[in-house]
Amino acid sequence: MSARDKILGKLRAAQARPLPNPDDAVVAHYASLPRTAQDQLAQEFAEKITAWHAEVHTVPRGQWVDKLKDIVAEKGIRTLLYPPAKAHGKALEASGVAGLKPYDRPIDEWKQELFEGVDAAITGTRGAIAETGTLIVWPDADEPRLMSLVPPIHIALVDADTIVPTLYDAITAQGWSQGLPTNALLITGPSKTADIQQTLAYGAHGPKELIVLLLTGEASQ
Amino acid sequence: MSTQPLQFVPGSEFKRRAAEVVANPFLRKSFRGAMDFLMAKRAAQFPDPELLERQRTLAEHIRRYSLSRLPQLLEQLEANLVKNGVKVHWAETPDEANAIILGICREHGAELMVKGKSMVSEEVELNHAMEQNGIEALESDMGEYIVQLAGEKPSHIIMPAIHKTKQQIAKLFEEKVPGVSYTEDVDALIQVGRDVLRKKFMDADIGLSGVNFAVAETGTLCLVENEGNGRMCTTVPDVHIAITGIEKVVEKLEHVVPLYGLLTRSATGQAITTYFNVITGPRRNGEKDGPKEMHLVLVDNGRTQAFADEQLRQTLQCIRCGACMNHCPVYTRIGGHAYGTTYPGPIGEIISPHMMGLAATHVLPGASTLCGACGEVCPVKIPIPDLLIRLREEATHDAKPGHAPLVGQGAGKSTFASLAYKGFAFLYSRPALYRTFAWAATRFRFLTPSNQAGWTVTRTPLKPAAKSLRELLAERRK
ipTM value of the model? Predict the structure, then answer.
């Protein structure tokens, strides 16, 4: 008999009493919590993610490329990894930002270069969560997983209209269970650790800096 | 069940080790400071006790429901993982788990494995098994990396290097990492770890990770972390192997949300971690990164024994936050290493007997004052004090009729203790004999020995009063 059959056999032999499904209790719990008003979501998100050590720039939708140029200059970014097949990638190509590097071939062909020769990467997001100041990153073939992990600076575009109050809202409203990518991600601030004497240090293994361009219809702050 | 001689510390050794730490002011201060810090951070996350109670009730409900359908959920998880392209393996013992992982490594001619934090991999002594077979297994969580570099084991399930000061780590890096000079600057120390490990992530053939939650309905593995090393291990190498206990499965993604919220708040007092890594299969056609092959190893290692009993099954509700150890007055004083088990503290005292047998662990359920703090802070409401009492009983008695004995059942029986209790019962159930005894004990109290075996090791000797309670009452009535 295989280990699988033995384990499942032992579990079945215990004849655990069936217990009521928690689905309704989960729904009721989240319905009972106070909710942030729709017009406050962007502000709450920006405050929370700033508290997690991210840098937030609120910019009008049409002007984010200009802001990005400022950031590239200010941070001294020489190589910026971008997703060429995405709309924001195409906008970058058209803008003439210096040092653009497309993620256009499998990692296997350029792993060392990605690890050692890229200063920053820019990605889109599927949305964000106000309650915790969290990005919802949804990598796919055009915008691969490692973009938000390997380069020392991660720049993320968040459309203010896609911010939801809680993680529960995101999972239910966006129907996550109906179609997950190979690697969905929640990202809340730059990589960090407190493993040495509970002292907080940023840039443990992932990005040292997380920069959020929060796109709104309003004028730039 | 195969026990793990490498890390097993016999019962008598537990007391000796505990005494050593208690006598070490340096370690005492480290643990006290760290636990105070973690307790304060957790408390700040739960300002509303009524809300916390509702959250705990919900989390308990989800965990208990998941366990009530464990065999079905495991089969559903397996079917969906397979559909997503993940190979699923089952292991009853640590040896089986290691053999499976070794087999995968051999198939790929692997020489280097990078590891994200996984307590189950500690439980099965994976690093040891890999190194015996010529495969380097490198820990990449900063705390685990430090502990591995020092040739030690984690002393806490969330903060593995909590027993070490930055001065010790500075010295360790200076000695063990080529080209590094002594620095106590924490940012610089972390940068050293980052530089060393980035090269390893690039070169590794295999990435190994644990699992925080496995979702049956979607065939998804969720990993919780702050550093990004978990993401590196699950994304960069060509092969990703995840290892987890069979109890980690829940039915739906929606069920994960309340558990995740309580896990991070209870563990380190964070509302959320930097990364929540939701993995649903290996690299798909056309994708440019991610592992080309993915495996999940489901480990039993004694969990089915706990599952067989309705009360002991509650042990498996655990989501490994570590709050019970952070709040345990015993853990705070003796630290994680004294226990000699993978899981220290209250959760370790109730889960280790199932993994290692009571013969090896029968003293552990006694390493508690039963103050109840562990049960009070447990985010999934495991009644830890009740389970400690239950295991104390199982350790010192034969199995009750109709109950299958636990591994090592009755291993803690002592002839002296059972004679003493029998004598006590005999005396106290015979009034005439009891009165005679009480009269003699009060009159000849000067004969009481000052050495009273185990009692006087840390306490003053017991001595009968000059007059019994009955005599005092009789005098008052006069």
Answer: 0.96
